[in-house]
Write a structure and sequence with these properties.
Pfam families: ACC_epsilon (PF13822). This protein is mostly helical. The chain has helices at 22-42, 52-56, and strands at residues 2-4, 12-14. The radius of gyration is 30 Å and the shape is elongated.
Length: 75
């Protein structure tokens, strides 16, 4: 027995053995949907909270390289 929705993104249930009633299939879909919704709600990534200080601070400049001469002139 196969149940598929009208659209391509619908739910597809394939019963391998037995003949479940419509009520049993409805109960199965309700339980799986609830479990999926609960798992999806827990899987949300937390947004990074940035303070006003971190938003306004500039990146520090990297130190000057003293091994390189100015304008590539040696001496």
């Amino acid at each position: 027995m196969t149940i598929a929705g009208d659209d391509a993104d619908g739910v597809r249930v394939e019963v391998q053995r037995g003949t479940p009633t419509e009520e049993e299939l409805a109960a199965l879909i309700a339980v799986v949907t609830e479990a999926y919704a609960g798992e999806a709600a827990e899987a949300v990534a937390e947004e990074e909270v940035r303070s006003a200080w971190s938003l306004t601070q500039r990146n520090l400049r990297t130190p000057l390289r003293r091994d390189l001469t100015w304008g590539r002139f040696a001496g």
